[in-house]
Amino acid sequence: MKILLTILLVLNFGVSNSQNFIDGIIYCAEHSANEKLRFAIGEQILDNNFKFEKSETLIEVYNENEDRLERLTLDEFNKSNFPATQLWLNYKVMDENLILTELGFPFNLNCTTPWNKKEIQEILEPYLKVLQNKTKIDLKKALEIGNENGLNEIYYWDIDYEKRKLTWTLKSKLKNNQSKVIKINSKNGKVISEFIEIPID
Description:
Number of strands: 9
Radius of gyration: 21 Å
């Protein structure tokens, strides 16, 4: 009887390790992530600037057909038969209705994450400077400066430290899959450098 019960539990887990099981983990992980973010960045910024996107959760699976790990969207996972190994919650970090960056928050299937408060703060530190109005140049202004300096249809932007200066990096597509790149000082809006980025095959 115990053997039969064990087999049934394993079979049920195999079935539930799809939509119902993952939905439960996502629900648990979202609650845990919100608590960690609230503790690390504060409730006001979390409520005003962070948007959880359940549909953009990524599921890491073991593809036994090719003997390798893959990351699937939630929709792709629900249509597959591969067992999940880990997942990443997607948070869009917003600055005045513009997507400042996206955060992939990792979780194991037991609803635990390897990230602690210090790691979260380190990852988000450049973006928090913008959201806390500690930079003179916000994302909207950085995009305007990019346009004024010849960037058309900007497809990439980010902010990070370069030589101890918080710097915006903006990119616009050119011909032959090349990109024009401009780097902007976040304190005074001056263009630090601009160059053409050539893709490496």
